[in-house]
Amino acid sequence: MSLNRRGNKPYRKEKQAGIESFFFSGGSLKKRSEPLKEVPLPISNANTKDIFKTLSGTSSQSFEDNGDCDLQEISMPKNFRVQSVPRPAAFSKKVSTSSISRQQLKRPFDSIGSYSSTQQKDEEEPEIVIVSKLKPSLVLTNHGTFSQHLGSKPASPAAEKSPQPSFDFEGLMSSVKPRAPKKLAIKYKPMTKSSSSMFQWSAEQQAVIDCVLDQDLNVFYTGSAGTGKSALTRELIRQLRQKHGESAVAVTASTGLAAVNIGGTTLHKFAGIGIGVGDAKHLVGKVLSNNQTKQVWNQTKVLIIDEISMVDVTYFEKLDAVAQGVRKIRKPFGGIQIVLTGDFYQLPPVSQNTQKKFCFQSTVWSQLVQKTVLLTEVFRQQGDQRLIHMLNAVRVGQLTPEIIQDFKSLCRPVVYEDGIMPTELYPLRHEVQRANENRLRQLEGFPRTYTAKDMLKQSQNPGDLVQLDKTVMAVKELVLKKGAQVLMLKNMDESVANGSIGKVMFFLPTGIWDAIRETLSEREMEDQDILNGVDCISAIFDNAPEDVLDSMWNSLKESVRERLLFHWSFSQNVPKNTPVYPVVRFSLGSHTSRSAFRAITPDTFVLESPGKTLAEREQLPLLLSWALSIHKSQGQTLPRVKVDLGRIFEDGQAYVALSRAVSADTLEVRNFDPSKVRVSRLVAEFYQRMGKA
Ligand SMILES: Nc1ncnc2c1ncn2[C@@H]1O[C@H](COP(=O)(O)OP(=O)(O)OP(=O)(O)O)[C@@H](O)[C@H]1O
């Protein structure tokens, strides 16, 4: 092989199997006007599949170049560096220039560029260029061999400049081990909503913070739906942990869903007494016989209980007895500072006890609670005073003819221009399931089933898997189709968070999706022609017949074909068994037509008890969201909601359902009937006493 003027090896001229097909399967590319210099590159037999493996993230090891190639910088927008290896004249360039997010920066590869020829001569072999995001000096090409330092930390800038020993590309590829989907998933960062900078706390909220943090009181704070109880709880957790340390603050809620909402565990798991079967003496013995639970009770300085309205009075009294018995301190809850929150006008405990049911009926309550704070400022429906007024009337069961009329006037279809339908709320689980299945069935297209992976972690008890299934929101089997409406269950970034709703647009391997996103701006993604183009690419993964694919492709606008040619061609060579994930278009609110596209990969849902993870579920953090049960909706804010009150059976249920809405414009109410608005007399009296206190 001849050496070029620098004494390095020149480009390899022979064709490599499988490479050209992904450049020349359709459309045409423009010629590059200026001549390009020839530069040296090592040689490899890498084929498309190998490159795809790397691109799709089956490896996240860092790669480094061998310092042997001459890189020409093409463009450098903020946070983004596109470098490419020049090719001989008559080759054109397609390199993405879109800016990238911080999150994407974590991925191993930055951008894809390709050179391709309009004349398909052997020596004008097309080239793919993948630029490392972590290491801007790295360019991986189908012509190139690069060095790899498995598991090594990213090199310092100085190290990047210095030559590295060369490395065999095939060796590199063969050592890339497929990884579990979890590892491929974007790591969702916890939302910072609980951080003090997020909100200007109201005077009422601040009063709670002062009572808990400065005065160390046992506090119960309550208020109607949307008064910021959960937001405030998250802030208290943050500050209490700073004050006492993580392990001294027990964060619990009466239901699994409410616990997830504040990043805690269920009260049952914390307490270590199961559902509380047996008398107090027996339960104390049970805790004392388990070192871990005993330690948890002893190290807890503050116990937070959210959704206190659903804690049964008997259980509450047993908790107090256990705390005193285990800690051997004759004070309410053994001297632990208690922070209780919830709204008794919302869902009550599931209780057999007809005499006494709510924990405020207990003498323990009156001995324990030193300060009650009523939050009155409603944030959820801020800006819709009329709806706040109507909801307050439902909460206390005092409906006037005008209010009834106002609710009846909400019985009309609400049309959303972006096609995302409102979440439907039903009292009964089977109504929910039926509604979701019906909607899914109506969609054309190929159903894709995502089955959760459940694992016992620090537990030997198979019952914990049953508990996991009951507790976490992610379902065991998630069936999706293009067009399915979904609810996001995790906080992903500033735009897409737990509770965001969206629509499944495509199913794609994450690598292909990342490559597409780096080529297209947010605005371009809103363009229907572009969406048709991406849909065409995704049809490859639906195993659409070739003639169908070709006619779909040819029916696209030429500009779209040019824009997506690389991805289209590349996708055709992707192994058929490559996992695909839904790409969801999330609405950024009902008052804007803007949306955010995200590929959703599996995440982890855990069942915890104090200090340990009992079991884990790996599943896509999505739920079909045309319909939800009212019980599941408690604690959620739903930007668009349709409520069917036909089969309401519980006190507070109508109120919980209606109060998920953020405005009357986005609330549709079916079967409103004043008799469905049920309020517990005991609760009404409790709040009356509170008002007089
Ligand atoms: N001080 C504040 N300023 C602005 N927005 C706030 C404030 N406190 C809470 N919010 C917002 O108000 C909405 C409702 O808050 P949150 O869900 O905490 O209410 P809640 O009282 O727990 O409701 P529910 O009883 O229905 O569970 C959320 O979107 C929350 O982010």
UniProtKB/TrEMBL annotation:
Keywords: ATP-binding, DNA damage, DNA recombination, DNA repair, DNA-binding, Helicase, Hydrolase, Isomerase, Mitochondrion, Nucleotide-binding, Nucleus. The keyword DNA repair applies. GO terms for molecular function: 5'-3' DNA helicase activity; ATP binding; ATP hydrolysis activity; centromeric DNA binding. Its EC number is 5.6.2.3. It is found in: Nucleus; Mitochondrion. It is an enzyme of class 5 (isomerase). Monomer. Belongs to the helicase family. PIF1 subfamily. This is ATP-dependent DNA helicase PIF1. It comes from Kuraishia capsulata CBS 1993.
